[in-house]
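Structure, all two chains, one model.
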Amino acid sequence: MNASELAGRVRTGETRAVDVLEQHLRAIEECDGELHAFLTVLGDTARSEAREIDRRLGAGEDPGPLAGVPVAVKDNLCTRGVPTTCASRILEGWLPPYDATVVKRLRGAGAVVVGKTNLDEFAMGSSTENSAFGPTRNPHDPRRVPGGSSGGSAAAVAAGLVPIALGSDTGGSIRQPAALCGVVGLKPTYGTVSRYGLVAFASSLDQVGPFARTVADAATLFDVISGHDPLDSTSLERPNPLALARLEEGVDGMRVGVVVELLDGADASVVKRVHEAAEALAAAGANVEECSVPEVSYALPAYYLLAPAEASSNLARYDGVRYGLRVDASSAEAMNGATRAVGFGPEVKRRIMLGTYVLSAGYYDAYYGQAQKVRTLIIRAFARAYEQADVLLGATTPTTAFELGSKVDDPLAMYLSDVCTVPTNLAGHPAITVPFGVDDLALPVGVQLLAPALGETSMFQAAAVIEGAAPAGALPQICAPTIGAGPTSTRGER
Amino acid sequence: MNEHGSARSERLTREDAAYVARLARVDLTEDELDLYAGQLAAVLDHAAQVAAIATSGVEPTAHTLPLRNVLRDDVVRPSLEREEVLAQAPRAEDGRFWVPRILGESP
């Protein structure tokens, strides 16, 4: 059952929040041994939150649009008094002294936080294999990766362990796993969702966003978590784009550009699905045209200079002094180096090295400075494209889910799986992936819609049309017995 | 990839990797230095594509929002509880973080 149905039943008293919670905790208990989507499951605190929702309903209060809905949160979002590891040994055992703003907003809307989900260490990766606590499996094929870095949230939603979840997207870390697991994933406009309490990876690119099994649930969750936050100095002080309220307005007259560079190099089965989605938009009244944004192909190399540079600076704070791991040594500098050697995994070390190198004297202008200028060119190219189009369409990922271990020894090959998602982050724009059928191996395919800054309203409208026209998905191999049939049957009915 | 082998080793040597690791305060083993020197060179080869792009007269973008400074009134507000914060430190003493000596000689 999806989030809006669950909240509806809880709000009308048809079912109790505590029963909804127990059903989901059982599903997690049954499935997560194999899936490993969760790093922490919050049985007791979730139960007391659910009881409080039921009490408030009993007292005639409305807990909000997510009343009693179990939600999972990526483990790089701070939860007060609850472990927040970023899937890193360096933060093992750390208990944050505050909640992320998005976690507060979830609870403020009546949601019940049931657990913290697995990720690539510090959100660096595209497969969740870089977790210090072991990989998450793809519910559609346990031999394959769920994508990453928010692989735990994507897998948990796909398998029916929770109806909705939060992730973070720096270069595709929501959209890529959502596509590989067959769920909806949104990267909002930079600045619309607070980053307060999101452990920083690359601050100019990071954005928190929702996972859901339906576009409407993703819209609901976006409406809940977005909005100005004085605790985040990059939070926008302007009205949010409405998502749910205008979701069903259709695409009649909407201008859609199919970006050829977002199909270059993609598998034939993925390209075919994108063209089918374009036809669905055209059939619903959109003006669909092919377009070219050549600068999009600069995005990946620019990203893999800019993001590591920001990361190397942000991760300097893990020095063994204020929180997390410390390896004792006779001097502060020796303690720093030994702590970071033991605490960080290989990918994090690689990115810190890369970032430190491109920021070092003699290389700064050639690499970092040049990449920042290329970022400007990419933003200008998108601005030109959006003179001709309201939204853009392309692949979310060049391939469907790949096998565990197949790219882990070749960082560059792994990075290439972000090729369709990073341009959005560099521009600060929103983008959403919508599941659209399967490939020849019955693995989910995602199609991606992009919009200019604050263009979420139109983007969601197009996403709803695509969802309505999507071919049936496959039932995950790992899924909750009572819930797992939800997404497939929903789509089948349309 | 193999045909770039020589270009790679020119671009980033093992000694470069050791220097960068020192700057980044990460102690690496000999094996790690060999591994990362090769892998970083491969990524830098790919990233070098940006060097070929014409950017003369283009302003760099550090972030995408039309923000300059974000100001607020300087009003005293509650902050995190000191004891709760220090409880998360690897070692604390007398209300402060305890670290090995940073300045001068070790005792």
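The first helix of chain A runs from residue 3 to 11.
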